[in-house]
Design a protein that fits this description.
about 300 residues; eight-stranded parallel β-sheet
């Protein structure tokens, strides 16, 4: 088997397991924030957010990812770099936004698989006690050293993302050559895997995310996407989150009078990037528009099945 091709495997969660690699899983995003780059404020009310999550499930989402703190460029997520400054959203505020939505979705759909997008140990513990199956940490266990022990204790699924620096630093970072960028992402994800191993988290609980847009400048994201499959040699399945990212809007600028395409005009580009990610080894895609993603993933999966009939 080609080591740069996704292979079937198991992702162990808190109370169940998912098969990965045969069919792309679609993770629907529910942002419970006033300031997320793509849909901030649309679903800040618990009832609206619950309804949105249920709609995404009806449209074919295999799992949901709930986030209650924006990690957009320039935000103070994780606290100010190199200081003891607290993050803009406290754990208490994050939980107050998150928990009514999490419990509301699970009350309506007890079978739903819910991930919580947080880097805070306190929020993770509370969410897992309330029924979340997965913790999606954009910092890859590097912003709150108490998070890995919580995940180990509960035995949940984890997504470990590569983030280059903190959101407030991203706009000023130097451009990396493709080889440098891939080495940086590989090293960061390897460090996250080491942190997980030190906390005695079994590898079958882990999925890796290259972190598109998280400390990668515009063209760097394409270089990373083109070589994404090389990260499969780290031994874990990949999740790709490209939906509505700003680098897609920059690429579409010539079609929008030289201005970056606004968020609402990035849907077709998001689908194109999603298909590329699947063909380059992603087993899970994190998206805002679930229905389009489900259809696109089915086509990409058919291509992979024709190329690798042994993993049908």
């Amino acid at each position: 088997m080609n080591p740069l091709t996704r292979t079937p495997g198991t992702w162990r969660l808190r109370a169940r397991a998912l098969e990965l690699g045969r069919r792309t899983l679609v993770m629907g995003v529910v942002n419970i924030t006033p300031d997320s780059f793509s849909d901030g404020g649309f679903f800040i009310g618990p009832e609206d957010a619950v309804a949105h999550g249920l709609q995404l499930l009806d449209e074919g989402a295999d799992l949901l990812d709930l986030g209650a703190e924006s990690t957009r460029p320039g935000s103070r997520a994780g606290g100010a770099a190199g200081t003891a400054t607290a993050p803009a959203v406290s754990a208490d505020e994050e939980q107050a936004r998150l928990l009514p939505v999490l419990t509301g979705i699970l009350a309506a759909r007890p079978e739903a698989i819910v991930s919580v997008d947080t880097y805070k140990a306190a929020t993770a513990r509370t969410a897992l006690e309330a029924g979340a199956e997965i913790i999606n940490d954009v910092s890859g266990f590097s912003w709150d050293f108490g998070l890995a022990p919580v995940c180990a204790e509960v035995g949940c699924g984890v997504v470990l993302m590569h983030t280059r620096g903190r959101p407030e630093e991203w706009r000023g970072q130097a451009q990396l050559e493709p080889d440098e960028l891939l080495a940086d992402v590989r090293a960061g994800l390897s460090a996250s895997l080491s942190s997980a191993a030190a906390a005695e988290i079994d590898a079958e609980h882990i999925v890796l995310d290259p972190g598109y847009g998280f400390g990668k400048r515009f063209d760097e994201n394409y270089a990373l996407l083109a070589r994404q499959a090389e990260l499969l040699t780290l031994g874990r399945p990949l999740l790709a989150g490209l939906s509505r990212k700003s680098f897609l809007g920059r690429t579409l600028a010539p079609l929008h009078s030289g201005q970056d395409a606004p968020v609402e005009a990035r849907e077709t580009a998001s689908v194109a990037a999603l298909v590329a990610a699947i063909l380059h080894g992603a087993s899970i895609v994190r998206v805002h528009n679930v229905r389009a993603a489900v259809e696109a993933a089915r086509i990409a999966d058919a291509v992979l099945a024709a190329e690798q009939p042994e993993v049908r």
